[in-house]
């Protein structure tokens, strides 16, 4: 792909809903991944005209450092060093030789050649120092390949589970890799398996069989053997003696083989650097296009999940609302039944206390009792429903990262996996973006709803029917004893009426308020989960994301 094609792709990226709608972007929580894609595209554009980057890898003790020194023409990489650290070494050409250490904290400083060589070693102090170093850049005017930047990392002699992430990170930025074989160990199945993994990253690999001076087999035999068993993995295969090339560059018995290798690098790679770069760019862009596609497909799935989650939340609350009403109703029924048989209330009525005032006092008392029960129950329901919703989103997010990474890898994504999924904390962080904004958001809503209920019930008054019954009762007070039994019946009747009125009033009020407050939670949840967007618009956004993913997949 050309520079123009990169620019066309950039224009298409700029039409993305995720890049143009911040609310939707925040809703799906993929900003970091989108930024990676954007930055990677910019990097591809800027590097099309830069030096060809070559990554050296191979099995331990294959002579990789000796080969680097032989290519450069001086000792810049010490031999016989334990592969204990994964510090990156970049060796390139410059008229003014220098070495620069770049630390993981972002600082850097220039060092001498002697200081540079002292960074190699296996003792504890050196290893501890190496842990703080991110990269060492070496520039030398002895370098015979001005168009090549050699990249080495002692701790990445091969691809292992421990260094796989760093390996893939380096591979995404290089143009080709040199895999260094030990001539004494050709044919190791596990090594070919590792190379097969590298092939999936989309970069050309050149095989270099080193240490041919240490085996009785002729170089041609070694090349034929490797070609016969693994030719499909390699763009070219060479057999060399890096040691002889370094110690006796001219007129050693193996010099012709190293010269052939050099000639290939100088005439073929250097002369065709632009084409190799173009091939590398094409591979990188195709992986990037796939990455863009799977991100937007993931965003569409998340919008679909949010709609489903909103309905699941409503269903959960509807179920809880019915249980809540039943629980509150039973509590009110029980308390009011006790009140209807309360002898103290009967004595107060017989004693001439105003029934209306007594009734209101008991209403207020029972309201406070029910209110305490209501508040605790309401909070428990809120917490339980909220936790279920959050767990559903966590499960979805975990599965989504798996699906997203599988789609990226199937599309030849040179990044391998999306780094946001590397830790559980990141998964939870991403979930927070697309769930219910944590308990804080809805917790505030629940508290507000609770306060509304209390304020409303505190002002409720009982119907005047109680006052009418009371007046009739009072008019009969003090009359003949023959009417005492009748009056007792009237007192009991009034007491029962008071309890019934309180029960009906509390049932009506709490039933209404439960409905109001649960509807309030549903509305608050809807606002939070959709970030204030009209939920009727979400299906359209979902379709836009799917259509964009389809269009990006058609890019040639």
Describe this structure in words.
The N and C termini lie close together (9 Å). This protein folds into two domains: 51-271, Rossmann fold, CATH 3.40.50; 289-553, no CATH class. The chain is 63% helix and 10% strand. The model is unreliable at 419-483 (pLDDT under 50). It contains 20 helices and nine strands. A hairpin with a 4-residue loop joins strand 3 (98-103) and strand 4 (108-111). It has 556 residues and is an alpha/beta fold. The chain has a nine-stranded mixed beta sheet with strand order 4-3-5-2-6-1-7-8-9, with helices on both faces. 34% of the residues are buried.
H-E order: HHHHEHEEEHHEEHEHEHEHHHHHHHHHH
Q: Tell me about the biggest sheet?
A: 9 strands, mixed
Please give the share of residues in helix: 55-70%
Q: In percent, how much strand structure appears in the residues?
A: 5-15%
Q: In order across it, which strands form the biggest sheet?
A: 4-3-5-2-6-1-7-8-9
Q: What characteristic shape results from the CA principal axes?
A: elongated
Return residue spans where pLDDT drops below 50 for at least 5 consecutive residues. 419-483
What's the topology here?
Blueprint: H1 3-13, H2 17-20, H3 22-28, H4 31-47, E1 52-58, H5 64-72, E2 88-93, E3 98-103, E4 108-111, H6 113-118, H7 124-130, E5 133-140, E6 148-152, H8 164-171, E7 176-182, H9 189-199, E8 205-210, H10 219-230, E9 236-239, H11 242-247, H12 255-269, H13 273-340, H14 343-350, H15 355-410, H16 424-434, H17 438-458, H18 465-476, H19 484-529, H20 538-553
Parallel strand pairs: 1-6, 1-7, 2-5, 7-8, 8-9
Antiparallel strand pairs: 2-6, 3-4, 3-5
